């Protein structure tokens, strides 16, 4: 046999072998047969519906096994052990710690963005610690799940409150154990995540910072989608499919098509808890994820900040965190026009050019690679695959041409320096070009839609940032503008119009023998006004009737000159005595006005209309004497609402005291309060109880009554507990007081789980 024939036979079999090898490699996947995914219970996300319905299994073509974990750190440990391939909704903190430790893990997407309502620090009621005296946490014990977003919240909260977190004795506990330790009194504070753990902790504690306060301080949450590098290298298509299914689930939720019942059951929560939790979550679209991972995006900024925060000498911060982030999967999962990889196509083209493959064989192999129905040709290194695009275009594709003589660039109209008072802000401007009909605008590399040249985008950055804006006309002329944004979260915010009070909005179902003593004093004879205090009392009179169901004849309302020392004493020592039946009567007391402490801070006083701040023991009412008198009458229960403070300062920060007295006296809390007493106080003992001019009420009284309208019913079960009312007031009152440049935190003495009212 001639050498030429041998060569032809060899080439024939070689060609067939190569074709078969290519087709087999394209047909038979080397990808995993089972994918192990980590997730959280009590952390509701839309993709849990796809999990339950096994949509992941169907779309990925493999069995997807889900395992729940207590913390993101545990998820990553399982990834390192080879037990988990994908971690869904792992916090940014554990990822940063893993990145600093040079662990083989890659972030491929953003799962959830959220205000820190689902992750927060709670201080025990017994510690009497608030944000106003948070320095007292130094030297005390705190339960914190190390390496989680809760640790980030802990550190950032302490920094914002001026507390040295290194001086706090941190105990590494998962959220469930941390909540248990707080309720037992083993720790002064617990930083937690998860609905049940937070709910349990709030029975014996309160928020150190409200979710809104944390958000305003730039403390926001980011959860990630992480993949083990070993799995990622061999299973890129599976990762893309996982993100595709997740994106679709998020889109369904956004459009109101999710089954919340399925999600709630899988998350281990009630439907109401799930709705409340998810209302505080944002599940970013693919475009939003790319934006957040851009040069100045929220996640990029957080990676830098947290990388340095959690760096150690053994695990220093990375110089560039983009090396551990891969957003190609987000792009691959969301784009409708794809360009096939040159490296894969080039082999087939080269074989066609060499004569190893015929054109039909080359086309068959390419179509097998790209999918049936794709436009393919041989001899090219780039193949466009066109699929039906059902999405609405928001920007046009920019195509430059050099056929025009237009040489003028667009003009970008926007301020070069902008100061904002919140991390989340809107950047707005206009771009014009007299000689071009089309202008293409980019912000940090992302195309932004315009409307008649005007543009508006929402940004988020907890730190100062530079934003690069580039405008290009249809002829390729471009101009750029750098906007320097200063994030000043301490700037004054304009007050919003407040909703009017409406005691008729609900009807109480409370029954029983009830009486109410209501006192409001605005105009004092011997000291400054307590603005709006009489209105507070008159309005509360209606809430006593409508919400607490107290009969008219059992209400004693005293305002201004009706609330002198003599008349109040008559009400306390004669009127109450005649109406309280031992172990039957429920007593409600409301007082709005001035309160003062004795010089040594050991006695607290209610100041009557004719009281003299310099003669407290003779002209004011001792709180301890009042409590003793009521205890002796043996009522079934006593609930007191006290819109007053003991700082010696009025609602408008005018001093009540004579010049010889100190302006502010910090009173000591008095003795033990009986178990059947519930006392809501407007502020801490060393704080001012403020007035709210736009509502014409005290801040405490206004939000107390709004809470009684049902606003405080956090679980919407038509019951309001003491703890729910305190949580609602603490969030609202402290936030409104901060707008006035003050600190005010309501307090509760009594059982937080006791039902205050029921309503219909």
What does the model show?
With 760 residues, this protein is an alpha/beta fold. The protein folds into four domains: 34-113 and 221-334, D-Maltodextrin-Binding Protein, domain 2, CATH 3.40.190; 119-218, D-Maltodextrin-Binding Protein, domain 2 (3-Layer(aba) Sandwich); 411-487, Sandwich (Immunoglobulin-like), CATH 2.60.40; 514-758, Rossmann fold (3-Layer(aba) Sandwich). Helices cover 34% and strands 22% of the residues. The protein has 24 helices and 34 strands. Strands 2-1-3-10-4-11 form a six-stranded mixed β-sheet. A six-stranded mixed β-sheet has the order 23-22-24-28-29-33, with helices on both faces. Strands 7-6-8-5-9 form a five-stranded mixed β-sheet, with helices on both faces. β20 and β21 (478-487) form a beta hairpin. α11 (236-254) packs across α16, α14 (286-292) packs antiparallel against α16 (328-334) and α17 (342-354) packs antiparallel against α18 (359-370). The longest helix is centred in the N-terminal third of the chain and has 25 residues, at 3-27. The chain is elongated and about 110 Å long.
């Amino acid at each position: 046999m001639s050498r030429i024939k041998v060569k032809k036979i060899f080439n024939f079999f070689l060609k067939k072998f190569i074709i078969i090898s290519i087709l087999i490699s394209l047909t038979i996947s080397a990808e995993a047969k089972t994918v192990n995914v980590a997730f959280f219970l009590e952390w509701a996300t839309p993709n849990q519906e796809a999990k339950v319905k096994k949509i992941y299994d169907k779309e990925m073509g493999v069995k997807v096994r889900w395992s729940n974990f207590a913390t993101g750190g545990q998820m990553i440990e399982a990834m390192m052990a080879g037990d988990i391939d994908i971690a869904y909704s792992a916090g940014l903190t554990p990822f940063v710690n893993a990145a600093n430790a040079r662990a083989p893990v890659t972030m491929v997407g953003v799962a959830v963005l959220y205000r820190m309502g689902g992750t927060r620090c709670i201080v025990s009621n017994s510690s009497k610690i608030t944000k106003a005296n948070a320095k007292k946490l130094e030297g005390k014990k705190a339960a914190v799940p190390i390496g989680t977003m809760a640790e980030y919240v802990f550190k950032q909260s302490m920094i914002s409150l001026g507390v040295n977190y290194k001086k706090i004795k941190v105990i590494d506990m998962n959220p469930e154990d941390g909540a248990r330790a707080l309720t037992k009194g083993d720790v002064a504070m617990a930083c937690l995540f998860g609905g049940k753990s937070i709910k349990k902790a709030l029975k014996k504690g309160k928020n150190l910072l409200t979710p809104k306060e944390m958000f305003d301080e730039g403390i926001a949450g980011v959860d990630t989608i992480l993949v083990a590098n070993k799995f990622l290298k061999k299973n890129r298509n599976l990762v893309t499919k996982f993100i595709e299914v997740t994106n679709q689930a998020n889109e369904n939720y956004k459009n109101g098509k999710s089954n919340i019942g399925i999600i709630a059951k899988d998350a281990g929560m009630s439907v109401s808890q799930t709705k409340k939790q998810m209302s505080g979550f944002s599940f970013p679209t693919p475009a939003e994820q790319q934006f957040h991972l851009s040069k100045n995006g929220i996640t990029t900024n957080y990676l830098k900040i947290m990388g340095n925060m959690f760096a150690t000498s053994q695990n220093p911060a990375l110089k560039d965190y983009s090396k551990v982030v891969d957003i190609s999967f987000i792009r691959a999962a969301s784009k409708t026009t794809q360009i096939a990889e040159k490296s894969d196509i080039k082999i087939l083209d080269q074989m066609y050019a060499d004569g190893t493959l015929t054109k039909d064989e080359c086309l068959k192999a390419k179509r097998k690679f790209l999918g049936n129905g794709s436009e393919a040709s041989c001899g090219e290194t780039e193949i466009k695959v066109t699929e039906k695009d059902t999405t609405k275009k928001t920007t046009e594709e920019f195509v430059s041409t050099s056929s025009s003589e237009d040489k003028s660039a667009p003009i970008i109209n926007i301020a070069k320096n902008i100061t904002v008072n919140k991390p989340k802000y809107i950047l707005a401007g206009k771009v014009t070009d007299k000689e071009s009909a089309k202008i293409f605008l980019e912000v940090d590399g992302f195309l932004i839609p315009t409307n008649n040249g005007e543009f508006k985008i929402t940004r988020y950055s907890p730190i100062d940032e530079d934003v690069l804006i580039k405008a290009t006309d249809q002829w390729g002329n471009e101009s750029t503008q750098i906007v320097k944004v200063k994030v000043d979260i301490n700037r004054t915010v304009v007050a919003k119009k407040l909703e009017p009070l409406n005691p008729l909005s609900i009807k109480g179902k409370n029954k029983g023998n009830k009486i109410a003593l209501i006192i409001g004093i605005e105009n004092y004879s011997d000291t400054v006004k307590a603005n709006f205090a009489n209105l507070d009392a008159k309005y509360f009179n209606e809430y006593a009737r409508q919400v607490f169901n107290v009969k008219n004849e059992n209400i004693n309302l005293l305002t201004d000159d009706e609330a002198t020392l003599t008349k109040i004493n008559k009400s306390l020592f004669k009127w109450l005595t005649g109406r309280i039946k031992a172990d039957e009567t429920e007593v409600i007391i409301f007082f709005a006005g001035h309160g003062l402490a004795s010089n040594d801070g050991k006695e607290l006083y209610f100041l009557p209309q004719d009281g003299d701040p310099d003669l407290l023991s003779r002209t004011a009412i001792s709180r301890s004497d009042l409590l003793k008198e009521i205890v002796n009458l043996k009522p079934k229960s006593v609930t007191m609402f006290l819109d007053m403070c003991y700082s010696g300062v009025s609602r408008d920060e005018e001093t009540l005291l004579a010049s010889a007295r100190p302006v502010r006296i910090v009173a000591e809390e008095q003795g033990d309060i009986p178990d059947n007493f519930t006392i809501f106080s407007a502020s801490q003992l060393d704080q001012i109880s403020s007035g709210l001019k736009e509502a014409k009420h005290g801040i405490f009284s206004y939000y107390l009554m709004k809470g009684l309208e049902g606003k405080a019913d956090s679980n919407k079960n038509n019951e309001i507990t003491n703890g729910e009312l305190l949580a609602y007031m603490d969030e609202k009152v402290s936030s409104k007081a901060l707008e006035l440049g003050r600190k005010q935190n309501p307090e509760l003495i009594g059982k937080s789980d006791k039902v205050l009212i029921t309503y219909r």
